[in-house]
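# nightly structure sweep
# worker-07 picked up a monomer target from the shared queue
# config: single-sequence mode, recycle default, output format = structure tokens
# input follows
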Amino acid sequence: MIISGLYVIIQPDLHPAYSPVELAGFALQGGADVIQWRDKSGDTEMGWQMAKAIAKLCQPYKKPFIINDNVELALDVGADGVHLGQDDLPIGAARKLLGPGKIIGGSAGTSERARALCEAGVNYIGAGHVFPTQTKQKTTPPIGVDGLRAVCDAVDVPVIAIGGISEDNMPALFEAGAAGMAVVSAVCAAEDPLKATQILKRKFEDNG
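# output follows
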């Protein structure tokens, strides 16, 4: 299963009117190619319930469902894989737990980090943050389009751009070599999440 296309990250408390499960449903209806559940709330029971429900939603669409950080949760809810940051479980340890058939993604902001992740066995790279973003607190500056291009040029696995992505800046990311775009607030904080997903998907198809 290859990770590419419109990658929508769902997390709690981003929309005043819709639950995470409803947001995932809108994203899938709108054409999302990958769904990730990212929960930093610390509410284990809520996180499990949301992840289980979203995993079930993804099945009829035959779209990959990825869990951020939590390998145990991914195994428990039958997710297709995990995405691991630099401070999470090492890739090798995650692979031993998940087995060869699951997807593992890793985060990289430099070509050196991206190459190290590939050597460790990731299936795709999440590269960023490309542009300024308010969704997740950052301690490093954006890598920009040139930084994204450097990551894309350094590896053979798909690279998913993340951070401040909108329909306006997507063409530059394609030109840099990205295989997909990950968005959070562009869908989950939109007034109409379904319409927002459809617009992004059309933009992706126009450029992909």
